[in-house]
Amino acid sequence: MYNNNQRPRENTFKEIKGYVSKRARLQLDNNNLEKIQTENGNTTSETSHESQLSITKLLSLPNRIRSALENDHAHINVERSSTIPRRKIISFPKEHTKGVNSLSWCGSFGQVLASASMDCTVRIWDVFRTKKCVRIIKHDGAVKDIRWNINFNNILSGGYDKTAKISDIETGITIQESRKFFGSVNDIEFFPSGDNVLTCSDYVVRNASDKNIMVWEIDSMTAISNQIYQEAFSCTALRFHPFRKHFVAQSNGNYVAIFGGEKPWKLDKRKRFEGHLVNGHPIRCNFSAEPEQGRFLASGDANGGIFFYEWSSSKVVKVIEGAHQGACIDVCWHPLLNGIIASCGWDGKVALWGTNTFTL
Q1: What is residue 24's three-state secondary structure?
Q2: 174-201 tens-digit pLDDT
Q3: Among 52, 74, 96, residue at a domain's last position
Q4: N or C: which terminus of the chain has fewer CB atoms within 10 Å of its end residue's CB?
Q5: How confident is the model at residue 44 (pLDDT cuts 50, 70, 90)?
Q6: Half-sphere exposure of 180 toward its Cβ, with a 13 Å CA cutoff?
Q7: Structural domain includes residue 110
Q8: Confidence (pLDDT) at 229
């Protein structure tokens, strides 16, 4: 499977979540860029050389992110309450002509941001330098979801044209394409072990969403369980907690349900995240990343707001009202910078939100 967060096949969360310091990650990133430069440098044409410089610049670390990496322990002194985004930092130029379905930061550093839209395009945003769209990838139909590859130079996109494309972000040219898909799958999430995958769909039978959330064994693609969620609502998104043995599902019942991350994947009937509205929209949710380690869950909202919940209490800790005109569809925490989140909505806009003290 093609996923920007490739996971090993060990069966324990402890082995998967081993900590790598920011300095070490910075060195790994530099090595990765050198590899890309070496591979692109095998040709001597002037055009290839210009392309090499272009992709190297795009994937290089902006000063704001490099500073955060070099100050390895800077986040220790940040007050916990200040890590909730409270104000708009950037409102990107409205280049999408229709609603935006999905957002994805590039790898574990978040140099650039990708957005997928109903206007049949994927756009790559240079967030911390030009603050503009720098690449456009086109589909024949609306684009529903996006994922980066492990080297961050290609992106996988899937759309309502029932096509999955792997595209070069430098040129926008399609490298591989598959039209073997059918039906409506709302979201896919890999298990941390790498052995299984979760899917959710719009499939609802009578008064229960039998086969709505399903677990599949990857090697054989056989269904292991289809009786996980028995409520009479379909689900629009799935997310594993980055540091705990749980996953959540965004339900059309206007709440986020919590499930155990190990078999039998039991629904937690005593705890849920509620307050936002879904109302049939493909609303998504996401956990905060390092250094918060999944302390907060953010969700879009049918009325255009962004809701922030605390994992331990499931209570609402902050609401940004009117973040978008129309539904706020997706919210995506920055993988490295504390208290930074991107959002998108039916108004076609992409925005960046941060703490009161954050500066670019």
Answers
A1: helix
A2: 888 777 554 567 787 888 887 888 888 7
A3: 74
A4: N
A5: very low
A6: 3
A7: yes
A8: 82
Residues 310 and 348 in one domain: yes
First and final C-alpha spacing in the chain: 35
In this structure, are 134 and 275 located in the same domain? Answer: yes
How would residue 266 be classed by pLDDT, with cut points 50, 70 and 90? very high
Q: Which residues contact 259 (CB under 8 A, 6 or more apart)?
A: 213, 228, 229, 246, 247, 248, 249, 265, 266, 267, 268
Amino acid at 243: F
One domain for residues 49 and 84: no
Q: Into how many domains does the chain fold?
A: 2
Does 121 share its domain with 97? yes
Burial class (CB in 10 A: 0-12, 13-18, 19+), 345: buried
Please check whether residues 32 and 109 belong to one and the same domain. no
Sheet holding 328-333, edge to edge: 87-91, 350-354, 341-345, 328-333
Tokens 């409270």 belong to: 86
**Highest mean predicted confidence (pLDDT) among 3-7, 66-70, 157-161:** 157-161
Instruction: Copy the structure tokens of residue 100.
Output: 């935006």
Structure tokens at 188: 């896919």
Residue at 229 is within a domain = no
The mean pLDDT of the chain is 78
Shared domain check, 65 and 84: no
- What is the dihedral sign for C-alpha 255, 114, 200, 160? positive
CATH number of 318's domain = 2.130.10.10
245 within 8 A of 261, measured Cβ to Cβ? yes
Both 43 and 84 in a single domain? no
Q: Tell me the pLDDT band of 350, cut-offs 50, 70 and 90.
A: very high
**Residue 34, token pair as written in the block:** 């050198």
In this model, does residue 57 exceed pLDDT 80? no
Same domain, 126 and 254: yes
Own/partner long-range contacts of 118-123 (Cβ < 8 Å, ≥24 apart): 118/142, 118/143, 119/348, 120/159, 121/96, 122/146, 122/155, 122/157, 122/167, 123/95, 123/96
Q: Which domain holds residue 46?
A: 18-74
